[in-house]
Amino acid sequence: xxxxxxxxxxxxxxVEGQYSYAVPPELTEKVGVGKRVLVPFGxxxxxxxxxxxxxxxxxxxSTLKPLTDVIDDAPLLSGPLMELGEWIARYYCCPLGRAxxxxxxxxxxxxxxxxxxxxxxxxxxxxxxxxxxxxxSGQTAGGPAKRFTARQRAVxxxxxxxxxxxxxxxxxxxxxxxxxxxxxxxxxGHISQQTRRVPLxxxxxxxxGPEPAFDLNSDQRAAISRISALTAEGTFxxxxxxxxxxxxxxxxxxxAIRSVVAAGKQAILLVPEIALTTQLVDRLAARFERxxxxxxxxxxxxxxxxxxxxxxGEKRVIIGTRSAVFAPCPxxxxxxxxxxxxxxxxxxxxPRFNTRDVAIKRAQMSSxxxxxxxxxxxxxxxxxxxxxxxxxxxxxxxxVAGLPMPRVQFVDMQIExxxxxxxxxxxxxxxxxxxxxxxxxQQAVLLLNRRGYASYLVCSRCxxxxxxxxxxxxxxxxxSTGKAACHHCSAKMVxxxxxxxxxxxxxxxxFGMGTQRVEEEVKTKFPQARVARADSxxxxxxxxxxxxxxxxxDGRLDILVGxxxxxxxxxxxxxxxxxxxxxxxxxxxPDFRAxxxxxxxxxxxxxxxxRAESGGRVVVQxxxxxxPVIQFAANHDYASFASHELAIRKSRGFPPFSRLARIMVxxxxxxxxxxxxxxxxxxxxxxxxxxxxPADVLGxxxxxxxxxxxxxxxxxxxxxxxxxxxxxxxxxLRGEKILPLSDKHILIDVDPVSLL
Length: 756
Ligand code: ADP
Ligand code: ZN
What we know:
CATH topology of the largest domain: Rossmann fold
Strand order of the largest sheet: 11-12-10-13-14-9-15
Bound molecules: adenosine-5'-diphosphate, zinc ion
Structural class: alpha/beta
CATH class of the largest domain: Alpha Beta
CATH superfamily of the largest domain: P-loop containing nucleotide triphosphate hydrolases
C-alpha cells in the first residue's frame, strides 16, 4: 500500500465509466481537474487522452498505473462547467468524456490561434557563477566574470534583477542582444526557460449601430424591472417572456443584458439556428459592446481565441447557437433563450441534450435568472409556469406601437378544388391577396413546409410509389436537377419514367407538391413579380441564404417562397401578405408533437405579416379541413391552444405529463434489429418489475423512418412520471448493463423532441 495523489479520469473516446491513475511526483504540480491527461489504456496500454475529473490523496496499491502526462497547461473546463458536464452525461445517458468533449470544441482543445511564449529565468543550477558575475562585474573586471562576454553579462544581469523572469521578447529588447546569445546561455545551463501558450487578440465582433429612438412601453418596462430585480439579487429563476411577435421581447432582452453587463457580469443569449437568424443576430450584436458571436462559420482559430477572451472576462455578451451554452463565462449574470421551443436547440448527436434545458441547469448552478422568450412557448415551459415555484411568466400582451395582429383567413382547398377547374396550389383568395400586395408595391411570403417539386412519384397504373432503396421513404422529384432525391440519406437518382415493377411498367405521375412547384405556379400567374425561393435546396450555403434575405429586405424581391426557413426570426416591414400553402403537411406527421409544431409554424409565419403598418393579411390553406389547431393559430390564441392540447397530452400521458426516453435499435439485418429490440424491451420490463420501478415501455415498433442509411430501425419509448424517475430508471438499466452507452446499434434519446 502506498499513499499519494490519485487522479480520476473520463476517457475522451466514448468509453463508459471513470478510471483511477496514480499521479507521479513530476506531475503533481501540473495535474488538475478540467485538464486533459494522457493515461495508459486498453489492452495495448497505449497512452490515450482523458479528462481529469478529480484529484485526491488516497492510499493505493502498486497495481494502480501512473498518469503518462498532462496535456493542458490550464483547465479546459472550470469547476462549474465540469459539474454541468457530469449532469449532462448522467441525464442524457452518454459517456462523461464525450459530454466534456462536446463542451470544448476541437479548435479550443488545440488552442488554435495561440502562440508559444518563452519565459526566461536565471537558472538554479548555475546561480553562483552567474550571480557572482553580476555582483563583481561592476567593480572588478577580473575573476569569474571573465568567463562571460559583455552580452552574456547583460542578460545575466537583467535576469538577476528580475527574479520572476522575463518573456523572451522583453529580454531581447531590454538587453539588445541576439537570440543566439540567449540560446548559448540556455545551452550552458546558466538560464532556463518555460514555455506557455497565450492567445492572440480575440476577433472583434463589435459593430455598434444606432440606438432606436422610441421609449419602452409600460409592459416592457415592467418586464425589465422584474428581471433586473432578479439579476441584482442573483437568484435563479426561469422567466417565460411570453409575447406575440413584434411585442418587443427582443428589446427587453437587450435592456436586461445591458443592466447585467453594467454590473460587471456576463450574459449568454442563445438563438436557434444562426443561418435562420442572421438578421436578429446582426441587430442584437449592434446593440452591445464587447460582444462575441459564436456560429458554425467561425474558423477554428477565431473560435478558440473567442473562447479564451470569454474565459478572461473580456467578452461580456455571448450570442450563439447550441454550443454557446458552454461559453466559459467566469461571471455569468443572465441567460436568455430566444424561441425557447425550437427543435433545433436539441443536439441531434450524443450527447443529445436540449440546449434550453442545459441553459436552465446552468443558470441554476450560476445562481442567475434565465429568460425563455417565445410567442409560442413549448408546452413543457408553459406547464412549468403553472406548476413550479421557480418558473414565472411575464406577458407582453400586445404588439408595440398598437399594431393589430394580421387578419388570418382560412381556405378549405377541398371545397376550392370542387369549385375550380384544374389543380391549383394557390387558392383564389391567395391569388387576389398576392395581386393586391404586388399592386401596392409591397411584399409577400409563401410558406410550404416541403421542399422539392413534387412529393411523390407514383405509378399511374399500380399506384406503387418510388422509394429510396436505402431508406424506403418516398423519393422527391426536384425540377431544378431533374433528379429524384431521398430527403433522409441524400441519395439521388435519375428520374425514372416507368414503374419499378417490370410486370407493371406503368408510367409515373407526380403527386403532391413542394416549394419548387409553388415557385413555378407563382411565376406563371405573376410573371412580372420578382420571386425567390428559400429552402435547403437553394440555400446550401449560408451566404446564399443571406443574399436572398438581404435582397428581400432591400426590396429587390417581391415574393419569397420557402419552407420553415422563411417563418423564423425575420423582420421585414414591407411584408403585407403571408400565405400558408398546405398547413396540414406537418399536422399529419406521426408524432405526438405534430399539433404543437403546426401551431408554432402557422403562428410564426403569420407573425411575419404587417410588422410595420397595419393591414397585414394571412391566408392559411388546408386540405384536411379546419382543425382546431389551425383555428387557434388563425386567432393568435396560444392560451386556448395550450389548454386544448394539454388536455389531450394529459389524457394520453404524454409530456409534459410524463418524461420519455426513446430507444432506437438499428441493424443492417431486419430480423436482427427486430429481435434485438424485442429482447431489450423484455429485459427492461423484467428489470422494472423486479425493482418495483413504475414506468411504461411502449413498443417496440418499426420506427417511422423504418430504414435509414442501410440500417433497419425499431424503436420504443420508456415513459416515467417525471425526470427524477426517468433518471433513476435509466441509471438502473445502465448499472445492470442492459442499456450500454456506447453500442453503435443502440441510441438513447432522453426527452426526444421528435419521434419521426
Ligand atoms: P419581438 O422580439 O417580440 O418580435 P421586437 O423587440 O423585435 O419584438 O420589436 C418589434 C419591433 O418594434 C422592432 O423593430 C423594435 O425595434 C420595435 N420596438 C420595440 N419596442 C418598441 C417600443 N417600445 N416602441 C416602438 N417600437 C418598439
Ligand atoms: Zn434514402
